[in-house]
Specification:
By secondary structure, this protein is of the alpha/beta class. The chain has two domains: 8-73, no CATH class; 86-143, no CATH class. Helix content is 23%, strand content 24%. It contains three helices and seven strands; from the N terminus they run βααβββαβββ. The strands form two sheets. A four-stranded mixed β-sheet has the order 4-7-6-5.
Length: 144
């Protein structure tokens, strides 16, 4: 029998704290406490060598149920479509017009945060509707 493992989802990005704070707003996540021995993240960052400052940031589900999200600075920008993306489940259990209304309402909430709207995939005989989006650095995600 395999043991259960915790999962962390890691994003490559240019500005880890900015992207992490965006996802905190999207998911209702929080910034975890700073490492032991530090009273704030600013104090922790100040203890790092200059080249490591701002290199990473995280956010976590305050209930401890969802995965931790980690954001790491990389030198290159996003070039192609993500191979993995998050589905933000805002329409679970809803169908038809009610589902579309829930997707549109969440899209309207996220646009002022810097998200970009993508393509609406309308329900077919196999799948319910979902709405493609991008975060503030262009990483794809879906409102599902």
């Amino acid at each position: 029998m395999a043991s259960i493992k915790q999962v962390q989802v890691t994003f490559d990005c240019a500005d880890p704290e900015r992207v992490a704070r965006f996802w905190c707003e999207v998911l209702g996540y929080v910034v975890p406490p700073p490492p032991e021995g530090f009273t704030s993240w600013d104090e922790f960052e100040g203890s790092l060598p200059p080249e490591r400052r701002g290199a990473g940031f995280a956010c976590a589900d305050p209930s401890g149920v969802g995965p931790r999200l980690y954001f790491q600075r990389v030198p290159e920008g996003k070039v192609v479509k993500n191979r993995v993306h998050l589905d933000v489940r805002v329409g679970t259990g809803l169908v038809g017009e009610e589902r579309l209304a829930a997707l549109e309402a969440e899209c309207a909430r996220l646009l002022p945060l810097g998200a970009k709207r993508g393509r609406l995939l309308v329900a077919d005989e196999y799948n319910e509707s979902c709405l493609g989006m991008q975060d503030i650095e262009g990483n794809e995600f879906c409102l599902d």
